[in-house]
């Protein structure tokens, strides 16, 4: 029998897919399907439970495959199976192949409209040759196996079938999304928390009841065309917020009465309004007694709407003077720490208390500051008796009297203690054991009008806060007038001896020094001055030089006085002589006088 073979490799494609479906090739490989994927003879189409799949055939017709089914694709279904010229028509309109062609031409679902024999599940109904039916539809079990086609060994020719071409002109559909979702095309935070209706209109041959599919964030949402050819499909605001490209893709597929289909697509962009934010900054890092206030700045990411002082809370302090600056993003205020307080303060902008111009509320923000406005509290206690009998005797009035005591509280070693006696201050530092001892002249204690010692100690804590403690202690002075002892008489010059005692070295050869040893009646108790004279003898001033003195004695040529420091009872005066190479007939004399 002569046959005519069509060599064109025809393919269908996936027109509509909701849910999951796969194609299984001749090697059993299971490949996920998506809209637009091609299908060809030899593959098995598998749909998951709850899926919707529609295949577009090369002749423009469509085949819908129910959820949870398998469909074997072969050349007959694709319309390219070899057909014998003499058998271009089927002998019986009731044959399985003819029934399949009828279902396809009418846009039907093979999985629901075919009898078992027409769907190729057995060899009955069409005779031996029809036992090789081209489509197999089964309920999906846990395991899907690759389909195989068993042909009768008696013949290699499949049943011959030419589908009824009918009306093959596809319809023309259009779809147009409304330009601005939510009215302005901008989704606010409030809108993103609720479903957003995405609306539009279809045209052309699209009709009421057609399905519109929206794709947002890789998820699909479907709805039907209304009688006025509009549609409205709710999409979760959270999905619109998560969509990376901020574009809604829409498609509508329509089918005419001949089973021809058409799909139209459209897309529209949108934006998501930003969420404003604020940064609170307490400018000073710490506050203390000397500095209890700090500027606070509020810097917003966008100019805030409705931001007032009531939107601010403070802990362990107060905020005053909220002021808008020339920069619409920045406000300032003043934070004042509580007194006395030691701990952490804070300034907070309340969450959702302000919005941006789009109406999106902003989150709150907080800044903290270390506060120590609690001054230290040192104490000081003077010992009760400044002397054994707490009285300054005549003898004690000429001595230094140690005034002692102890500090406590926040006072610490090294702090300074100040005593006030007779309008004079005397200071000392606190010892490691927190005691102190400060010498005060007995004469000042005697002269003090109120006979009261005033004491104070000042300490500073780690935050720079200072505190003071005070104490007083009284004492007595005997009523008998105290006559201070008369000061000792100043010493006098008792001798001026040239050289060693005696006359043996009263003369020296020119060029050598004359030495005069001066003795006082007693060691000086304080610096004393004495008249000093050198010269007036037979030697002229050209015969000797400037005298020098020992033991710290100094000479003032202007006043003619020498000054003897305290503690000196003897000193030497050395006078250098000049060797003038002249021969004198008699010795020259240089007199020296002290006192």
Describe the overall structure.
The protein is mostly beta strands and 595 residues long. It folds into 5 domains: 12-73, no CATH class; 173-272, Immunoglobulins (Immunoglobulin-like, Sandwich); 278-372, Sandwich (Immunoglobulin-like), CATH 2.60.40; 378-474, Immunoglobulin-like, CATH 2.60.40; 493-594, Sandwich (Immunoglobulin-like), CATH 2.60.40. The protein is built from 7 helices and 40 strands. A 4-stranded antiparallel beta sheet has the order 4-1-6-7, with no helix packed on it. The protein has a 4-stranded antiparallel beta sheet with strand order 3-2-5-8, with no helix packed on it. A hairpin with a 5-residue loop joins strand 15 and strand 16. The longest helix is centred in the N-terminal third of the chain and has 10 residues, at 96-105.
From the spread of the alpha carbons, the general shape counts as: elongated
Structural class: mainly beta
Query: What is the name of the CATH class of the largest domain?
Result: Mainly Beta
CATH architecture of the largest domain: Sandwich
Radius of gyration: 60 Å
CATH topology of the largest domain: Immunoglobulin-like
Mean pLDDT: 82
- Unreliable spans are 1-8, 82-101, 110-165
Q: Strands across the major sheet, in which order?
A: 4-1-6-7
Alpha-carbon distance between the two ends: 169 Å
How can the largest sheet be summarized?
A: 4 strands, antiparallel
**Multimerization status:** single chain
Total separate domains: 5
**Number of alpha- plus pi-helical segments:** 7
Provide the β-strand percentage band: 35-45%
């Amino acid at each position: 029998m002569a046959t005519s073979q069509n060599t064109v490799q025809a393919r269908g494609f996936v027109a509509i897919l909701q849910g999951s479906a796969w194609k299984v090739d001749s090697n059993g490989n299971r490949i996920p399907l998506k809209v637009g994927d091609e299908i060809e003879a030899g593959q098995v189409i598998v749909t998951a439970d709850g899926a919707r799949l529609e295949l577009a055939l090369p002749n423009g017709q469509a085949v819908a495959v129910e959820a949870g089914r398998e469909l074997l694709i072969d050349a007959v279904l694709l319309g390219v199976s070899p057909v014998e010229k003499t058998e271009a028509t089927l002998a019986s309109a009731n044959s399985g192949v003819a029934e399949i062609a009828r279902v396809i031409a009418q846009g039907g679902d093979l999985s629901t409209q075919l009898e078992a024999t027409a769907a190729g599940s057995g060899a009955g109904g069409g005779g031996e040759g029809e036992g090789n039916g081209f489509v197999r539809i089964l309920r999906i079990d846990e395991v899907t196996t690759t389909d195989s086609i068993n042909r009768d060994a008696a013949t290699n020719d499949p049943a011959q079938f030419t589908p009824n071409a009918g009306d093959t002109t596809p319809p023309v559909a259009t779809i147009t999304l409304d330009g601005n979702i939510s009215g302005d095309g901008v989704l606010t935070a409030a809108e993103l928390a609720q479903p957003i209706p995405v609306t539009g209109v279809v045209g052309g041959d699209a009709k009421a009841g057609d399905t519109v599919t929206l794709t947002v964030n890789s998820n699909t949402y479907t709805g039907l065309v209304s009688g006025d050819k509009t549609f409205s499909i709710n999409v979760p605001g959270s999905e619109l917020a998560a969509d990376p490209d901020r574009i809604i893709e829409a498609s509508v597929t329509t089918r005419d009465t001949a089973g021809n289909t058409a799909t139209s697509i459209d897309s529209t962009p949108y934006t998501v309004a930003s969420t404003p934010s604020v940064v609170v900054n307490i400018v000073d890092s710490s506050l203390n007694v000397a500095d209890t206030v700090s500027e606070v700045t509020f810097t917003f990411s966008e100019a805030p709407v409705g931001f007032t002082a009531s939107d601010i809370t403070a802990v362990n302090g107060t905020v005053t003077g909220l002021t808008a600056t020339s920069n619409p993003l920045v406000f300032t205020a003043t934070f004042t720490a509580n007194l006395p307080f030691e701990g952490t303060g804070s300034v907070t902008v309340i969450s959702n208390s302000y919005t941006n111009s789009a109406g999106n509320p902003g989150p709150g923000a907080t800044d903290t500051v270390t506060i120590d406005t609690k001054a230290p509290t040192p104490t000081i206690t003077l010992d009760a008796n400044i002397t054994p009998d707490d009285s300054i005797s005549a003898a004690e009035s000429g001595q230094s009297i140690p005034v002692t005591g102890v500090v406590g509280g926040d006072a610490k070693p090294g702090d300074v203690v100040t005593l006030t006696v007779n309008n004079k201050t005397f200071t000392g530092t606190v010892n490691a054991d927190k005691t102190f001892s400060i010498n005060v002249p007995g004469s000042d204690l005697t002269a003090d009008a109120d006979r009261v010692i005033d004491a104070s100690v000042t300490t500073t804590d780690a935050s720079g806060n200072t505190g003071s403690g005070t104490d007083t202690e009284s004492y007595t002075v005997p009523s008998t007038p105290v006559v201070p002892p008369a000061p000792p008489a100043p010493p006098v010059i008792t001798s001026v001896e040239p050289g060693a005692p005696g006359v043996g070295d009263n003369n020296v050869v020119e060029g050598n020094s004359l030495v005069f040893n001066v003795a006082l009646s007693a060691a000086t108790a304080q610096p004393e001055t004495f008249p000093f004279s050198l010269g007036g003898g037979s030697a002229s001033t050209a015969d000797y030089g400037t005298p020098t003195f020992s033991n710290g004695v100094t000479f003032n040529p202007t006043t003619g006085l020498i000054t003897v420091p305290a503690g000196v009872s003897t000193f030497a005066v050395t006078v250098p002589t000049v060797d003038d190479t002249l021969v004198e007939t008699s010795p020259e004399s240089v007199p020296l006088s002290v006192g």
